[in-house]
Design goal:
Number of helices: 12
Largest sheet: 5 strands, mixed
Number of domains: 2
Distance between the termini: 48 Å
CATH architecture of the largest domain: 3-Layer(aba) Sandwich
Oligomer: single chain
Structural class: alpha/beta
CATH topology of the largest domain: Rossmann fold
CATH superfamily of the largest domain: Thiamin diphosphate (ThDP)-binding fold, Pyr/PP domains
Mean pLDDT: 96
């Protein structure tokens, strides 16, 4: 297959899911006629009809409420939340019902909630946020964040097939990166990958920060510093065996995400490393993230978000421990 963008890979994954299972439904704000604000669902309504790919009101709580009702009727809903910051009005539906229905009733809740997230698109608050920690903290939800077109395709297929609800975060800054994808390749939820092997320190990232971590590793190599990069792919469940296997080589960890450091998901990773691999560490786990402030106007975005220099500074601090 020719290289495709992540946006196209997600479109193809949705297309294949719709073609393979009549119970799969795709819906959200502007996903039908327009094909979504990022054109992720482009052409799907024309192919599968308005009964299976349809527009909704501009009401996120209603969108998720519709998904719950459809799941209870045996469908596999794939609702889209148009932007990350729009999800907050749907929080009660997700936390109180989507996450809890299986435990409450024994009824499967196979809902995949697609949420474009992250910055670097020159937008404003509510359009560039990283709310993943809210959902990793919610028992009953699975949370994934692919970083490549191939993983986006495969993880979305895994999410839609899953009997439990999945929050599917899409790094919109990476929508237009290209690579060849293998539609037959499976990526189970809960499996990380080593994106780059190294021996000096482990940089743990997901979604939009994986490419940043790889850039940092390339820069560090020029200084004869070898960095291993782990692409988590799945945040909940978290693939601790892959992280610990890396730390057996490097003994140092730096976690990178766009969300603010305080209360961010990196704190959970650091705690799990401390619980399960404390004896492997030769330095404290470092965290690199967005600043502990509301998301700024677009002209300050680069100052707010983590960058290669901040990752390398954290690596230098970790390597200074002897």
């Amino acid at each position: 297959m020719e290289p495709v963008t992540m946006a196209k890979a997600i479109n193809l994954s949705l297309r294949d899911a719709l073609a393979g299972d009549e119970q799969v439904l795709v819906f959200g704000e502007d996903v039908g006629t327009l094909g979504g604000v990022f054109r992720i669902t482009d052409g799907l309504q024309k192919t599968f009809g308005v009964d299976r790919v349809f527009d909704t009101p501009l009401a996120e709580s209603t969108i998720i409420g519709i998904a719950v009702g459809l799941a209870l009727r045996g469908f596999r809903p794939v609702p889209e939340i148009q932007f990350d910051g729009f999800v907050y009005s749907a929080f009660d539906q997700i936390v109180s019902h989507v996450a809890k229905y299986r435990n409450r009733s024994g009824i499967s809740m196979p809902i995949t909630i697609r949420i474009p997230f992250g910055g670097h698109i020159g937008a404003v608050e509510h359009h560039s946020e990283s709310p993943e920690a809210y959902f990793t903290h919610t028992a009953g939800l699975k949370v994934v964040a692919p970083a490549t077109p191939g993983d986006a395709y495969a993880l979305l297929r895994s999410a839609i097939a899953d009997p439990d609800p999945v929050i599917f975060f899409e790094p919109k800054a990476r929508y237009y990166m290209k690579e060849e994808i293998n539609p037959s390749l499976e990526v189970p939820i809960g499996s990380a990958r080593v994106a780059r092997e190294g021996s000096g320190a482990t940089v743990i990232a997901y979604g939009p920060t994986v490419s940043l971590a790889l850039d940092a590793a390339s820069a560090a190599e020029k200084e004869n510093i070898s960095l291993e990069v782990i692409d988590l792919r799945s945040l909940s469940p978290l693939d601790m065996p892959t992280i610990l296997a890396s730390l057996q080589k490097t003994h140092r960890a730096v976690v990178v995400h766009e969300a603010p450091v305080f209360g961010g998901f990196g704190g959970e990773i650091a705690a799990r490393i401390s619980d399960d691999g404390f004896d492997l560490l030769e330095a404290p786990v470092a965290r690199v993230g967005g600043m502990d402030a509301p998301y700024p106007p677009s002209r300050y975005e680069k100052l707010y978000l983590p960058d290669v220099d901040r990752i390398l500074e954290a690596v230098d601090v970790a390597l200074a421990y002897v």
